[in-house]
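Worked example 3 (structure in, sequence out).
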């Protein structure tokens, strides 16, 4: 009986892990764009309305999982160390069009991949792989964060 429980547990864990790794680009973006509700709260610290996401169960399952995803490259600072992956190109950015914070992902790039990211130009379409982190409370960061990001390939 004990062996059966262990085998069932291993089966469930491997299924969840495979689900995250084999998630297609379109399915990943579908979840990121639609499996979240955003409310706004007033921040005294920033004297502004800030988003507070509430993630759905499917997204919560992906939290901490490694995913591969494609999007448009947006550099965010002059030092060349802060990068964002966007569902839309710069001329259709979340800020300009009002599409929402769920269309951008903060990238925490592994040091050995920084050189490849610094070579990218705004709106280059590319693929990355990293560990998804859902951010609910830290208003210093975006609501979606990819940690341990690796450059996979430039698509256009």
């Amino acid at each position: 009986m004990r062996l059966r429980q262990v085998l069932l547990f291993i089966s469930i864990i491997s299924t969840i892990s495979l689900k995250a790794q084999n998630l297609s680009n379109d399915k990943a973006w579908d979840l990121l764009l639609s499996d979240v509700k955003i409310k706004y709260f007033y921040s005294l610290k920033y004297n502004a309305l800030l988003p507070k996401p509430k993630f759905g169960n499917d997204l919560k399952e992906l939290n901490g999982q490694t995913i591969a995803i494609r999007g448009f490259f947006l550099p965010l600072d002059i030092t060349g160390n802060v990068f964002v992956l966007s569902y839309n190109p710069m001329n259709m950015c979340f800020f300009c069009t009002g599409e929402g914070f769920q269309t951008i992902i903060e990238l925490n790039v592994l040091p050995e991949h920084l050189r490849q990211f610094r070579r990218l130009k705004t709106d280059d379409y590319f693929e990355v792989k990293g560990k998804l982190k859902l951010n609910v409370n830290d208003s210093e960061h975006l609501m979606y964060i990819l940690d341990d990001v690796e450059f996979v390939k430039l698509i256009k």
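Notes: The two ends are 54 Å apart (CA to CA). Residues 64 and 118 are 26 Å apart (CA to CA).
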